[in-house]
Amino acid sequence: MTIAALAAGVMAPSSGEELTSKAPGRLEGEVDSRIVPQAGPRLDEMTGKKRTEELEMGIAISAAYDDNIFLSPNAQSDFVVKVAPSIKWRKGDPVEGEGGYLSIAYKPTAVAYADFSSNDRIDQVAAWETGWRGKAIKLAYSGEARALGDATADTGTLTDRTEFVNEARISWSVRERVAVEVAAGYESTAYDDSKFADSNYTYGEVALRYAYSPKTTLGVAYKFGRFEVDGAGPQDVHRTTARIEWKPREKIAIDLEVGAEHRTFDSGSDTTPVVEARIGWTPKEGTEVYLQGYRRERASAYLAGQNYTQGGVALGIVQRLGDKWSARLEGGVERSEYSRVSGAGAAGREDKIHFIRPALEYRFTDDFSMGLYYRYSENSSNNPAFGYENHSAGVEMGYHF
Asked: Which of 210, 202, 206 is nearest to 174 (CA)?
C-alpha cells in the first residue's frame, strides 16, 4: 500500500495530494482514495505490454500561508514552502506471474518557513517491497522509514520523530481459492525530544483468505503482539478481524475490515471494536467519490501512560471540469478519547477534529499540473492546551519526468 501511494504521487501529482499521511493514525486532511485512481489513466505507449523494469521520477512544490503552523491554541502564522522530489524503481511484478520482484521509493521534502526559519527541515520517506512468487507459495517483505517534523494533534507542536515499520509475510495456497498467511512485523516511533514517549510494537499474524469469486475476497485474521511505551508498562494486544474486498460493480470497490482488539496493561484491560473501511465509486466518467472510516487505539506520545481510542470518517469528491480542469472537495471528522493504562493521574482528554478542504487543479499536460487549495481544520478539545483552529491556503505544482 505504501509503495502504491508513493508511485501514485510520482506518476500523477495532483493538488492537495501527499505521498503518505503526514501523521499516520490522525486525521490530517488528505483522504485515502487509492482504491479509485485520482487522476485517471495516463496516456502510455506501453499500455498492454508487460513491464519488467520501471523507473519513475517526479517533483511536487507548494507555497502556502498557514495561520497556525504549530496546531496550537496560541496560533503562530507563517508562509511555508515545500519542495519534494520523488523517485521509484521497480523490477518484476508482485501481482502476476512467478519469480522475484523489488520496488524501492524515496521522497525527501524540504520545508522552509519565512519567519520561523529555525524550524526549517527536510522530511524524508523511504519505502520498499521485495518478494518471490511461486505457484503455491508467496514470500514478501515490505517496510517504510520516515523522518518527520510536522505538527500532530497529539503533541500540539512541531514534532521531530523517526518512524519505522516493516513486515515479512508468507502466503500458501492450500487449494485453488484458499490461502493461509503467516506474518511477523515490527513498528517503532522515536522522538528527538525526550519529553515525548518513544514506542514500539512487535507482532505476529495468522490469516485465512478465500477467493469467493473474481470480485469478492473474504478473510479472517488473528494478530497478537506486545506494545511498549517509554515510562509505562507493556501492553499485550490480541486482535481478531474479518475482511471483505468486494467489487459489486465495475465502478464500485469496497474494502472493509471489522473486529475487536483486547489489550491488557498495568491498570487492567479493555476490549474495543476496530474498523478499517475504504469505499471508492466512479458514478460516471470524470467523477470520483471516496469514503474512509476507521476506529483504532493508539498510545499517546505526549501524555505518558495514556492511550487514545480514535474513530473518524472522511469523504472526498473529485469532479473533472472539461479536459484540463478538475475540482476536489474533502472533509471529515474524528474523535479521540484518552484513558490511563499505566501509572497514576487524571485522564479524560477528548479531541474532536473536523476539516474541510476544497481544491482546484489545472493539468497542462499528462505530466504537469498546478492547483490552488484552501483548508480549514479545528480541534474542539476539552483540554484547552490542545484545542486549535487552523486556516491555510496555497498553490501547488506537480511534475512527472
From this structure: 210
